[in-house]
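WARN  no MSA supplied for this record, continuing single-sequence
INFO  ligand: S-adenosylmethionine
INFO  echoing inputs
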Amino acid sequence: MQSTDKEFDLEIYKKEFVDMKSNQGELQKESFLNSTTGFFRDLEVFEYLKETLKKEKKKKIRVLNIGCSTGEETYSLAMVFQEVEIDFLIFGTDINEESLNCSSRGAYEKVDLLPLSKKQKENFFTCVDDTYFVNKNLKSKIMFLKESINHLKKYNEIDLVVCRNLLIYLKKEVQNTFAKDIHKLLKEDGIVVLGKSEYPEEFDKLFDNIDFSKKIFRKRKL
Ligand SMILES: C[S@@+](CC[C@H](N)C(=O)[O-])C[C@H]1O[C@@H](n2cnc3c(N)ncnc32)[C@H](O)[C@@H]1O
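INFO  complex generated
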């Protein structure tokens, strides 16, 4: 979020969301809203997802990508869906307005695209003056929205939730509410992907492991 973003109140954010014990109360706004990301970050997760989706033979999926930052994760998902020929709609959400603007623009430097194959660059980007722009057909299936992780009630019938590297800072209560909220908004066989070191306590009750080491889970029927 821009330092000029007047809507953001660090004290309210800390009080509502942040686990101050683990974060020792020292972190600044920039740390909570740190936008570190990349295309195909933890490649094995995307490969696993690709194989799982191929087997499931779904025709269309609705995806919620929470904490999407500057869009690389969202566009990586979109490329995977396109490659396995699944029609899709992705909601990419974040509270950092500046990052969301980058996501919507979909413009990246050559170095950002290093994890992509030549074919992926050709198929999904157009290069103008050394800047790589995400093609319209991919962008048209993605909506980027300024939304916080605790405002998920409007979503339903979601097939896949991807929320990585955001929960780590958050209070246990916020993490557990998140677990309950996504259990509700997912379809019966819905899948969740978390960051490598993230696992809310409530997950034990609400989700089954597809692959625990990759933090990929399936909604449990209760
Ligand atoms: C480290 S980035 C992770 C980006 C991406 N998910 C990945 O793993 O590559 C964490 C993102 O979470 C966002 N974020 C922090 N608090 C949030 C909240 N309460 N609701 C939604 N997004 C939030 C930050 O703005 C940041 O873009």
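The CA atoms of residues 81 and 197 lie 25 Å apart.
INFO  checksum written, moving to next record
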